[in-house]
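User:
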Amino acid sequence: MIDVKKNLDDIVKRIEEAKKRAGRTDEVHLLAVSKTIAYDLIDDSIEWGVRDIGENKVQDLLKRMDHYGDKLNYHFIGGLQRNKVKDIVGRVKLIHSVDSLRLAKEIDKRAKNAEVIQDCLLQVNVSKEESKSGVYLEELEEFVYNVLKLDNIKIRGFMTMAPFDASEEDLRKYFGSLRDAFNKYNKEIPGLDMDYLSIGMTHDFEIAIEEGANIVRVGSGIYGERNY
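Assistant: Predicted structure:
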């Protein structure tokens, strides 16, 4: 039996402890990753305060939207195919995974058609893992400038995922390098006004917070291990 309240209380406590270690007083947003999770467990998490959920498949996200309506804020966190963009633009709080200019242009086009501004995060592959999407750090500045030219997409920040088996030393290096880029570009690039660093998952979110993350994506830490 999964005790969602106990798990949530533990995650929130660990978030606050990580903030304290880092000397931070700003807010860290908890994004509950609900992919493959049964509705009764999601219902429990909503009862105990969850308001933001993330899915990595468009069809699954649409089902959650149909089920919960405007009760929740929805985030898309997976690889996004361009032919699926039209289904979620204007309906999600954040698209976390803008990993190419082609995708950004499609989001911009669909947002323009819908007469909305779509908030997005640019996905950065800090570790250069071949299995992960995202631009490399050395490509990021040019990517930011190109996306800034688009009228109906707003860059709200950056997202990354570290290798699952990375050491603490490597995690701090990866997360810290993205934080440094975030701070540098926010300060130096005209028209850029970012506020989100989406870094950290169940196994590494505390280190991510210590290195500057203000959105952490936690799934199994809340809902238990998934059955794929």
